[in-house]
Amino acid sequence: MSNETIEDGKYVELTYKVIDQNSGGVLTQVEYPLGYVHGTNEVLAPAVMTELEGKKAGDVIEVPIDCNQLYGPRDESLVITSRIQDVPEEYRSVGMSILMESESGQTRTFLVTRVDAKSVTIDGNNPLCGREVIFRLEILLVRDATEEEIQYGGKEEEGPDLEGVTQVPIQ
What we know:
Number of helices: 3
Strand content: 35-45%
Strand order of the largest sheet: 2-1-8-3
Order of helices and strands: EEHEHEEEEEH
Distance between the termini: 52 Å
Number of domains: 2
Number of strands: 8
Mean pLDDT: 87
CATH class of the largest domain: Alpha Beta
Radius of gyration: 20 Å
Largest sheet: 4 strands, antiparallel
CATH topology of the largest domain: Chitinase A, domain 3
Shape: elongated
């Protein structure tokens, strides 16, 4: 295992879990390694990125985060309940994401949080809003980043092979 430490210009791969401090439940988990170039792009909250500095492959760290500092307090005006017949069928499933646009052209993602026989509730607050969580990160790899990785902020992923695929313009 490398003894290189995380600092600007290092390519880092890690996995992480976000754990609710109150319940201890895992809210989200990244099982496939997340790769990035430290100091080039912030892929996680600034407080988490700061805590990664100086760590090595094999280290496991826990970083407590008050999500009110990241996302602000919950805004109950972003919770909307509509009659089920007013909601298209494809949006009547808990966990479904709906991208909505305001009159001013701003977009926000809403999440379907409740469906019953009469209504559908959607919430435009970030799901972590109002929670205190712990980011538990496992650092898998630390090494010098290549010039290409520095340019792209991580590994340049190859796209799918589209040879022979007919592209249809979106209307």
